[in-house]
Amino acid sequence: MRLKTLLSMGVLAAVLSGFAAPSAARADVAVSVSFFHQQLTPYGQWVVAGSYGNCWVPGGVAAGWSPYVEGQWLYTDYGWTWASSDPWGDIPYHYGTWAWVPPYGWVWVPGTVWAPAWVTWAYTDDYIGWAPVPPSFAFSVSGYVGGPVVVAQTRYVFVPTRQFVGVPIQSVRVAPQQNTVIFRRATKVTSFPVSNGIVRTAGPPPERVEKAAGHKIERVSIDRARTQPTSVERAGLQKGKTIPVVAPERERAQAIKAEKSPKAEKSAKAQPKAERETRAQAQPPSREAQTQARPQREAQPPERNAEVQHKTPEQKSAEHNQAQAKPKKSEKPSKPPEQHQAKKPQPPPEQVREAPPSHPSTEARAPRPEGESKAVQEAHKSEPKNPPRPAQKPKPQPKPEKPNNDKPDKGDKPGQN
Q1: Is it true that the peptide bond before 384 is cis, omega within 30 degrees of 0?
Q2: Integer Cα distance of 334 and 158 in angstroms
Q3: 202: DSSP letter
Q4: 243/161 Cα distance (integer angstroms)
Q5: What is the domain partition of the chain in residue ranges?
Q6: Among 214, 133, 126, which Cα is nearest to 174's?
Q7: 379-406: per-residue pLDDT in tens?
Q8: pTM higher than the cut 0.85
Q9: What span, in angstroms and rounded, lies between the C-alpha atoms of 174 and 187?
Q10: What is d(CA 228, CA 152) in angstroms, rounded to the nearest whole number?
């Protein structure tokens, strides 16, 4: 019985320790700049932003966009924690920091040290404001509890104190034009204590926020912020040294270059095949293809000649006779001498009028019987519309007649009739 009791207590202790284990495991999550490069590349572009080196610029943001606006503040075991609503997630708000670099605007400078939010504070009784710490910010292993880090007042985001927690910041943000008035009388605070190797964010006292809001601030789990704490040791930093909020530029450049190399090799291998397919579709046929196509075109006339060779001898003789009957273009009828033209008698006017027309279609046709006309019409329908005209033979010119002088022939004698 006692043995069963001990076993039951051991099982219960194991179960309880299993529930407590995830908190310690989350604190040992390893991160790297290469991992950040993979996660953020689909949502923006990587640029070399002046003295800050390799940075990430978010894409598809509206004009006037600022970090730490699309989301809300939660109070967790690690202090004031930012829960992002941006499509790229929580990485740029818990690692590294933001800087304003023309002409890109806000750029994210990568880092590997986790914090609930890398911001510096400015607050009054009525308003609470925050802004990203500069990339030059650094702290020790025990944290940062020194003088306030102050940035340009235009970089701060202010909201009413009573709407600071659990409310989408975008919907309650104070107009940036009021920053000058609020910032002048605000208390500036920058505090990042380190406990158990994990950085925490201290800002406005929770009691101040509860007094303005009129209710108690609920402390929630870090899971609500969709982020996992990382210890300073897991970030690859040694004790006794100053810890920068951003990773060294050389380390960032090497990590990003190593991350780009495999992708560049894959794209280089896939690119020639795509280029060959594109060029094959876009380029015109080569000379060899055109030369091979020419014999096919030149082979068509012999097929037509073959059709001509199948003609019957009667057809050939008819074509030969027609060719001989046609006058050659080069041969022109010789003009008669002028003497013969002068002696050529002109036909009387009556004969010219009575001369039959040259075209057979203008001949006067006699009326035909009704039955015969129908047969002729049907015959005309069956005939082709445009029958070939027969070659017209040149008309023979009339021979000049000798003038009659009414002189008797030599054989005739006068008086003989």
Answers
A1: no
A2: 115
A3: B
A4: 32
A5: 19-266
A6: 126
A7: 555 555 555 565 555 555 655 555 554 4
A8: no
A9: 17
A10: 30
